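Protocol step 4 of 6: structure prediction from sequence.
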Amino acid sequence: MSPFQKRSLIMNKNLKALGLLLFFAFMAAAPLLAQEGALSETKASIYKISIIVGGAIITLAAAAGAFCQAKAISSACEGISRNPSAAPHIRFILLLGLILIETLVIYALLVTFIILMVKWNTYL
Protein backbone atom coordinates (compact mmCIF):
# COMPACT_ATOMS: atom_id res chain seq x y z
CA MET A 1 0.00 0.00 0.00
CA SER A 2 1.49 3.32 -1.02
CA PRO A 3 1.72 6.30 1.33
CA PHE A 4 -0.86 8.12 -0.78
CA GLN A 5 -3.38 5.31 -0.28
CA LYS A 6 -2.74 5.29 3.47
CA ARG A 7 -3.22 9.02 3.58
CA SER A 8 -6.50 8.81 1.67
CA LEU A 9 -7.77 6.10 4.04
CA ILE A 10 -6.96 8.30 7.03
CA MET A 11 -8.68 11.25 5.38
CA ASN A 12 -11.73 9.10 4.66
CA LYS A 13 -11.92 8.09 8.32
CA ASN A 14 -11.60 11.71 9.40
CA LEU A 15 -14.27 12.77 6.92
CA LYS A 16 -16.60 10.06 8.17
CA ALA A 17 -16.08 11.19 11.75
CA LEU A 18 -16.64 14.82 10.77
CA GLY A 19 -19.77 13.88 8.83
CA LEU A 20 -21.18 11.97 11.80
CA LEU A 21 -20.39 14.87 14.11
CA LEU A 22 -22.15 17.35 11.83
CA PHE A 23 -25.11 15.00 11.41
CA PHE A 24 -25.62 14.65 15.15
CA ALA A 25 -25.12 18.39 15.68
CA PHE A 26 -27.85 19.13 13.15
CA MET A 27 -30.11 16.51 14.71
CA ALA A 28 -29.58 18.07 18.14
CA ALA A 29 -30.36 21.53 16.74
CA ALA A 30 -33.50 20.43 14.90
CA PRO A 31 -35.90 21.23 17.79
CA LEU A 32 -34.58 24.79 17.85
CA LEU A 33 -35.57 25.24 14.22
CA ALA A 34 -39.11 24.05 14.96
CA GLN A 35 -39.89 26.72 17.53
CA GLU A 36 -42.50 29.30 16.69
CA GLY A 37 -42.31 33.02 17.19
CA ALA A 38 -39.84 35.01 19.21
CA LEU A 39 -39.62 36.24 22.76
CA SER A 40 -41.30 39.49 23.59
CA GLU A 41 -39.02 42.47 24.20
CA THR A 42 -39.45 42.29 27.99
CA LYS A 43 -38.73 38.57 28.16
CA ALA A 44 -35.72 38.94 25.88
CA SER A 45 -34.23 41.73 27.99
CA ILE A 46 -34.71 39.80 31.24
CA TYR A 47 -33.18 36.72 29.62
CA LYS A 48 -30.15 38.77 28.52
CA ILE A 49 -29.76 40.17 32.02
CA SER A 50 -29.94 36.66 33.50
CA ILE A 51 -27.16 35.51 31.18
CA ILE A 52 -24.98 38.46 32.20
CA VAL A 53 -25.66 37.90 35.92
CA GLY A 54 -25.01 34.17 35.62
CA GLY A 55 -21.75 34.77 33.80
CA ALA A 56 -20.67 37.37 36.34
CA ILE A 57 -21.42 35.05 39.27
CA ILE A 58 -19.41 32.14 37.94
CA THR A 59 -16.57 34.39 36.77
CA LEU A 60 -16.18 36.08 40.14
CA ALA A 61 -16.52 32.80 42.03
CA ALA A 62 -13.92 31.05 39.88
CA ALA A 63 -11.48 33.97 40.12
CA ALA A 64 -11.91 34.32 43.89
CA GLY A 65 -11.65 30.55 44.38
CA ALA A 66 -8.46 30.35 42.32
CA PHE A 67 -6.92 33.26 44.22
CA CYS A 68 -7.83 31.76 47.59
CA GLN A 69 -6.52 28.34 46.63
CA ALA A 70 -3.23 29.84 45.44
CA LYS A 71 -2.88 31.80 48.68
CA ALA A 72 -3.67 28.71 50.78
CA ILE A 73 -1.16 26.54 48.96
CA SER A 74 1.50 29.24 49.20
CA SER A 75 0.95 29.67 52.93
CA ALA A 76 0.97 25.91 53.50
CA CYS A 77 4.27 25.54 51.66
CA GLU A 78 5.79 28.33 53.73
CA GLY A 79 4.49 26.75 56.94
CA ILE A 80 5.85 23.32 56.04
CA SER A 81 9.23 24.80 55.09
CA ARG A 82 9.46 26.58 58.47
CA ASN A 83 8.33 23.61 60.54
CA PRO A 84 8.65 20.28 58.69
CA SER A 85 7.48 18.29 61.71
CA ALA A 86 4.03 19.94 61.47
CA ALA A 87 3.63 18.90 57.81
CA PRO A 88 0.86 16.29 58.39
CA HIS A 89 -1.29 18.77 60.34
CA ILE A 90 -0.71 21.58 57.84
CA ARG A 91 -1.46 19.23 54.95
CA PHE A 92 -4.75 18.13 56.53
CA ILE A 93 -5.88 21.69 57.17
CA LEU A 94 -4.78 22.68 53.66
CA LEU A 95 -6.80 19.91 52.04
CA LEU A 96 -9.84 20.69 54.17
CA GLY A 97 -9.62 24.37 53.22
CA LEU A 98 -9.19 23.58 49.52
CA ILE A 99 -12.22 21.30 49.60
CA LEU A 100 -14.34 24.02 51.21
CA ILE A 101 -13.15 26.65 48.71
CA GLU A 102 -13.92 24.36 45.77
CA THR A 103 -17.34 23.60 47.26
CA LEU A 104 -18.15 27.31 47.28
CA VAL A 105 -17.22 27.55 43.59
CA ILE A 106 -19.45 24.57 42.81
CA TYR A 107 -22.31 26.23 44.69
CA ALA A 108 -21.79 29.35 42.57
CA LEU A 109 -21.99 27.15 39.46
CA LEU A 110 -25.24 25.70 40.77
CA VAL A 111 -26.66 29.18 41.35
CA THR A 112 -25.61 30.14 37.82
CA PHE A 113 -27.42 27.13 36.37
CA ILE A 114 -30.52 28.00 38.37
CA ILE A 115 -30.46 31.59 37.12
CA LEU A 116 -29.96 30.51 33.51
CA MET A 117 -32.60 27.76 33.58
CA VAL A 118 -35.46 29.84 34.99
CA LYS A 119 -38.50 29.66 32.75
CA TRP A 120 -39.11 33.35 32.15
CA ASN A 121 -42.37 32.61 30.32
CA THR A 122 -44.10 31.64 33.57
CA TYR A 123 -43.14 34.84 35.41
CA LEU A 124 -44.00 37.42 32.76
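Step 5 (inspection) to follow. The mean pLDDT is 80.
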